[in-house]
Amino acid sequence: RLDDVVVFSPLTGSNLRQVVRLQLADVLRRLEELDVAMHITDSAVDHVLQEAHDPQMGARPLKRYLERHLVSRLSTLILTDELTAGSAVAVDWAAKRGDWDFRITPGQKAEDEDEDGLTRTSSATLGRAG
């Protein structure tokens, strides 16, 4: 038996951009745990929408796309010590190359010491398992 019918309007471009930015907020939090800052351009967000948005599925595929294509590349940069604690990365989509463009501003090369005298290293990745 049906009690009520809920009609969903299709998401607009600005709504979808907000969804991508919300998904990226989680990535930013994970990067901040490693003392890494990230900025992503509007063209990179637009690329994510172009590749991952499905009008039938709405915004659901966006998170999966970000994890597979952006977070995995950021994790590789961390594991290869190209993206270290204290650094910043600007993420853009290079349409001519058809690939992500990561501009890294290096941070400290040495291990950081916090106020308790404990050494902190950047050996973690952006994965959820801990």
* Alpha-beta classification: alpha+beta
Q: What summary fits the major beta sheet? A: 3 strands, mixed
Strand content is 15-25%
Radius of gyration from CA coordinates: 18 Å
Helical residues, percent? 40-55%
Runs in which pLDDT lies below 50 for 5 or more consecutive residues are none
Apparent shape: elongated
Mean pLDDT: 83
Total strands: the figure is 5
Distance between the termini: 44 Å
SSE succession: HEHHEEEE
Describe the protein.
It is a single chain. The chain is of the alpha+beta class and 130 residues long. The chain has 3 helices and 5 strands; from the N terminus they run H-E-H-H-E-E-E-E. The chain has helices spanning 13-33, 42-52, 60-79; strands at 37-40, 88-94, 99-105, 112-113, 119-120. The strands form 2 sheets. It has a 3-stranded mixed β-sheet with strand order 1-2-3. A hairpin with a 4-residue loop joins strand 2 and strand 3 (99-105). Helix 1 crosses helix 2 and helix 1 packs parallel to helix 3 (60-79). The longest helix is centred in the first third of the chain and has 21 residues, at 13-33. The protein starts with 12 loop residues before the first helix and ends in a 10-residue tail after the last strand. The model has no long low-confidence stretch (mean pLDDT 83).
